[in-house]
Structure formats: structure tokens, C-alpha cells
Design a protein that fits this description.
This protein folds into 2 domains: 7-104, no CATH class; 116-493, 3-Layer(aba) Sandwich (Rossmann fold). It is an alpha+beta fold. Helix content is 20%, strand content 25%. A hairpin with a 2-residue loop joins β24 and β25.
Length: 496
């Protein structure tokens, strides 16, 4: 597939024209449950929309028209959010249509957040047990020593992204490291923020990402990419990716704890974002995405239940991280499936060749497969790996918060450990890891703890009774190849 040059243009004013138009597919025509129309938008209202173009021809962009669009105000969702959307499809001028992937900001309604804070487990008083996941618990479970930190002598760096009006606070990071970083060398401040850093209250999501990327990838320079706005009320993946495309010097590892249901996004948007993932892979970047916190997911299509895959977790060009729990929530023990861990099979992307053997082995040997009508067995399967996702301590707005859970936690942890491996590779004269998936599947789980117990959640109907896929020996669509055993994983991945 040829790579497309990407530019952003703004169209602020819409008027009626007489040009020929062609319709753009994948436009929402029905109102999601929970949303109410407040009436058509005032014609004098100006809108700012984002165009993703295939080539540079911006000269007359402000004169182009979106025939058929009719803007209304809506209110709905769990936070009673007010948005402006068009209930009708738009059409682009025929001369422009071949050069535009999509026009964002017209149809999609805001999703709900998936980060969870679980109630604290109750247990009789004991001595010598941990009371939640902290950096020291992670380092002990994954066999890191005090020496497993960045050297401070290389150009190694790592990054996370914060979207949806989520921001971290420097003071929270400093307090977190003061409370939980005493046993290892670390940095207590972010090296660089790319984008606008908001000054409002800190978000638990952003705080979690920064604190655990910097404590797992300890003493390594860390950047934060901040995209405070929303693309069509969802994560601005494309804006973030275009920012990466336009920079010549980038961190080697990027972790992102955001995602959405595949079916809620237009195919044009998904394909364009996936093209940018391909570019990042060819540049040698390692992109990690959370697998999601809804297990296999569930939705009804023509009154038939199906599992609901997540994107970008389902992209074949990113490494997707699932979640696990300790078998005993108060002891550093073997891990089992965290029932919320996202996983399954894409309905958009076919299975890539690098995972053909592993996925076929799972499908042929698993004794607990759901009915075949629930998933696309030929699709890209995910996650690829996993890490602890249950019961984290986070500092947000100056307050230590316990029992925060989700693959939003496991993803920066795995990313930080890959940054430590990159440190060793750079010191040995090797390039950074880059696109990791082919190597992970080539080594068939070497360097990882295999997670073989537990199933994740899915549809609450009689046929599957809330159970999705189950873990087993080798790769599975719940925890991938497993969780990191750092010394063994370092040995495997240190080779060129």
C-alpha cells in the first residue's frame, strides 16, 4: 500500500454551491442511545473541521463546500455533554473527493471512559503482604534489580500520549516518586511536553501513564505528547500521529492507553490511522496500545450477539498489551487473567503473517472457544503481550489513590521495560527495537511468563454467559504471549 502524504486543513465557513458532489461513505445516520437533539444549529455559527488530505492542494480549501451537511446541537452521554453534529451525510465536490480521506468532527458522538477504580479487596490482617501494585511490586514480580535503570549516558527516550482533556501534574509525579521510587534511580520530572499542557485538575489516566512509564523505564528521558482537544469527540490519534510524522527526532518507545470500538469509527478514519502506524513502524518506532478494559466486548447486530474488538488495539502495526492480576491480590504470586483484559479478533484487519502459526495453534487447541458466530477467526488477533493491570497506586491532584485498574496500567509498564532493553541495545551499538511484533511471534513467548489461567468477560447472554476467550499455554487472545520476565526478555531482545 502506498504511503500518502498527510496535511491538515481547516474549513471554517460553509455555504451552498453548484458543483458536482460525490457522497462519502461511513457516515452516521442514527442517533446513539442516550442522546437528544436540541435543534438545528444557528446558520451564523462557525465550525472548525479537520481534513486529512492525500496530497498537497490547499490553495482553495476555504472555498470548498460540504453539500448536505446540516448541523444540530445535541446533549447526552454520562456527563450530559453538549456537542454539534450533522445528522445528514455530506458530499464532497467530485474534484476534491479523490484527495480527501475523510472530514472529521461531523458525525461521531463521545464514547464513555473505560478506566476503572475497583473497590479494595477485604482480607484478614496479615504481615508482610503488599497492599496494592507499586513500582517496587512490579520490579520484584518482573525480576528487575536496582541496577536495571537507564544509564543517563545515551540518547534513549520514551513517551506517552495524553488525550481527551487528560493532563498530568509535575507535582503529582514528584510526590509519586518520593513515595514509591526510593529503591531505584529515577527521574522525577518529564523531559519535554509536546503540545499544550492544560492547567486544570490532573486526570487519573494521564497520571497513571506518566508515573508508571517513568518508574518501569526508570531514569530514562521521558516525553509527554499532549493533544488536549478531541477529534470528533474521540481520541485524536491522527493529529498525534501526524505530529510524529513531522518530527525528525523522536523517542524510541511510545505508549498509548486509549482506544475505541472498531465499529464506532469510519473505515476511512481507521485506514488512515493505520497508514500512519505503518509509517511509524518503518521509522523504527515501537508503538504500544492498551487492549481495552471490556474483555471480548459485546454488541448486538441484527439481534445477534457478537464480540466487539477495539481499535487501535486491533491494528497489525502496533504491539497490544493485555492485563493480568495476581492470583492472590496481596501477594507477589503467579499471574492470572484480569477479567477486564481486552482481546479478540479484528473485523477490519486480516490476520498478519507473523502471527499465523500462533493463532492457528490457539484456535485448533483451545477447549473453551466461544461460538464461531461471535468473532472473526481470520482477523488480526490481539493482545500480543500483557502485564499487571489490577490494583495500582496512583498520585493524582496530590492524593495517593489505591486500586486503580485497567490495561492503561499494564501498557506503560511494558513500554518502560522495553525502554530499558533499548538502553542496553544502544550501549551495545545496536539500533532500538522498532516494530516488535514479528520478533515476539518468532520467539514464541521466550522471555515471558505464560499466563494459563482465567477467562475475560463478554456478552451477558445465555449462550456465552459473560465469558469470552480463555487463556492457555502459548499465545491466547486474552494475555497474548504473557508478561515480562525482564532478565530473560533482555537476553532474547538484546541480539540485533
Amino acid at each position: 500500500m502506498g504511503l500518502r502524504a498527510c496535511l491538515l486543513g481547516l474549513l471554517a465557513l460553509f455555504v451552498t454551491g453548484k458543483s458536482s458532489y460525490s457522497p462519502e461513505p461511513d457516515q452516521r445516520r442514527t442517533l446513539p442511545p442516550g442522546w437528544v437533539s436540541l435543534g438545528r444549529l444557528d446558520p451564523e455559527k462557525e465550525l472548525s473541521l479537520t481534513f486529512a488530505l492525500r496530497q498537497q492542494n490547499l490553495e482553495r480549501l476555504a472555498e470548498l463546500l460540504l453539500s448536505g451537511a446540516e448541523f444540530h446541537r445535541y446533549v447526552g452521554g454520562p456527563a450530559e455533554t453538549h456537542v454539534i453534529r450533522s445528522p445528514h451525510p455530506y458530499q464532497l465536490p467530485q474534484a476534491l473527493a479523490p484527495h480527501v480521506d475523510f472530514v472529521g468532527g461531523l458525525h461521531r458522538f463521545p464514547p464513555t471512559s473505560s478506566l476503572r477504580q475497583r473497590p479494595e479487596p477485604q482480607v484478614a490482617g496479615t504481615v508482610g503482604l503488599h497492599l496494592g501494585v507499586t513500582p517496587s511490586v512490579i520490579r520484584q514480580r518482573y525480576n528487575l534489580t536496582a541496577q536495571d535503570v537507564g544509564s543517563g549516558t545515551t540518547n534513549n527516550s520514551q513517551a506517552c500520549a495524553q488525550f481527551l482533556e487528560q493532563y498530568f501534574h509535575d507535582s503529582d509525579l514528584a510526590k509519586f516518586m518520593h513515595l514509591f521510587g526510593g529503591s531505584f534511580a529515577h527521574q522525577a520530572s518529564v523531559a519535554r511536553v509536546v503540545g499544550k499542557q492544560g492547567r486544570g485538575r490532573a486526570g487519573i489516566e494521564a497520571s497513571l501513564d506518566v508515573q508508571y512509564l517513568m518508574s518501569a523505564g526508570a531514569n530514562i528521558s521521558t516525553w509527554v505528547y499532549s493533544s488536549p482537544g478531541r477529534h470528533e469527540s474521540q481520541e485524536p490519534f491522527l493529529q498525534w500521529l501526524l505530529l510524529l510524522s513531522n518530527e525528525s527526532v523522536l523517542p524510541h518507545v511510545h505508549t498509548v492507553s486509549y482506544g475505541d470500538d472498531e465499529d464506532s469509527l469510519s473505515s476511512a478514519y481507521i485506514q488512515r490511522v493505520n497508514t500512519e502506524f505503518m509509517k511509524a513502524a518503518t521509522r523504527g518506532l515501537t508503538l504500544l496500545f492498551a487492549s481495552g478494559d471490556n474483555g471480548a466486548g459485546c454488541w448486538s447486530v441484527s439481534r445477534r450477539y457478537q464480540f466487539r474488538p477495539s481499535f487501535p488495539a486491533s491494528s497489525p502495526y502496533v504491539t497490544t498489551v493485555g492485563g493480568t492480576s495476581f492470583q492472590n491480590p496481596f501477594r507477589i504470586t503467579n499471574e492470572i487473567v484480569d477479567y477486564i483484559s481486552g482481546g479478540g479478533f479484528s473485523n477490519v484487519f486480516p490476520r498478519p503473517s507473523y502471527q499465523e502459526e500462533a493463532v492457528a495453534q490457539f484456535l485448533n487447541s483451545s477447549p473453551h472457544l466461544p461460538p464461531s458466530s461471535y468473532f472473526n477467526s481470520s482477523g488480526r488477533a490481539y493482545p500480543d503481550v500483557a502485564a499487571l493491570s489490577d490494583g495500582y497506586w496512583v498520585v493524582s491532584n496530590g492524593v495517593p489513590i489505591p486500586w486503580v485498574s485497567g490495561t492503561s496500567a499494564s501498557t506503560p509498564v511494558f513500554g518502560g521495560l522495553l525502554s530499558l532493553i533499548n538502553e542496553h541495545r544502544i550501549l551495545s551499538g545496536h539500533p532500538p527495537l522498532g516494530f516488535l511484533n514479528p520478533r515476539l511471534y518468532q520467539y514464541q513467548g521466550a522471555g515471558l511468563f505464560d499466563v494459563t489461567h482465567g477467562c475475560h468477560e463478554s456478552c451477558l447472554n445465555e449462550e456465552v454467559q459473560g465469558e469470552g476467550f480463555c487463556s492457555g499455554p502459548g499465545w491466547d487472545p486474552v494475555t497474548g504471549w504473557g508478561t515480562p520476565n525482564f532478565p530473560a526478555l533482555l537476553k532474547i531482545l538484546l541480539n540485533p
